[in-house]
Amino acid sequence: MHDNGPTHRLSSPATVQSDPAGWFERLYADAERGEAVVPWDLDRAHSLFSEWTDRARPDGSGRRAVVVGCGFGRDAEHLARLGFATVAFDISPTAVRAARRRHPDSPVRYETADLLDPPADWLEGFDFVLESMNVQALPAELRQRAIPAVGRLVAPGGALLAIAVGRRDDEVVEGPPWPLTRAEVDAFAAGPLTPVRVEEIVVADGGIRWRAEFRRA
Asked: Cross-referenced SUPFAM superfamilies, in alphabetical order (predicted)?
């Protein structure tokens, strides 16, 4: 899920909890037919991601990157422009087909895949992993599995950048989405990953966003 700001509910909790993968595919399929609008369909990289790359200036030369839940590809194209050999995947086949159509000359490899069951050669296979606004769209049981699954894509010496809408520990929400607590953000540092910087960013409406960087030795 790629959204620069809104935290509006996208569907009923029961619908997403019963079939989260199917719900995303139906949304993208409806949008393809002109019957729905994908709220995170913007023509630029997520602002918190582009700000981070402006600051960190990562050199993608000779390095592999992966974008989790790529949607229509805006973040993946940004990574490719930085020189990374980029793979971008989504669980929705319709989203992947649309990304390929939108970027016909792109060097990005767009794939349909499931974060919870990725291709074996993706595990520990990427020097840079971007997770932007995706796991917050998952119900609690899947979210607890998805957070460490993101980290398993990071190669030795690699980095993970996670971006999410945030909430306070005592804040109750009825998703989706389900904004992440600080503890959930910290949980990305599973196994060999360690936190480098976790930023709590207050936005115009008073809400918070997390931008968290992790590295693997």
From this structure: S-adenosyl-L-methionine-dependent methyltransferases (SSF53335)
Residue 64 and residue 154: Cα distance in Å, rounded? 10
CA 43/CA 122 separation, integer angstroms: 27
Q: Does domain 13-216 fall into CATH 3.40.50.150?
A: yes
The pLDDT, as a whole number, for residue 18 is: 62
What tens digit of pLDDT does each residue of 74-117 get?
Answer: 999 999 999 999 999 999 999 999 999 999 999 999 999 999 99
d(CA 174, CA 152): 29
- Pairwise CA distance, residues 33 & 35, whole Å: 5
- What are the sequence ranges of the domains in the chain? 13-216
- Residues 195 and 56: their CA atoms lie apart, in Å, by 16
Report which of 116, 106, 112, 58 is spatially closest to residue 86, judged by C-alpha positions.
106
- Which residue has tokens 């909790």? 13
CA-based nearest residue to 84, from 103, 102, 57, 105: 57
How many Å apart are CA 154 and CA 158, to the nearest integer? 6
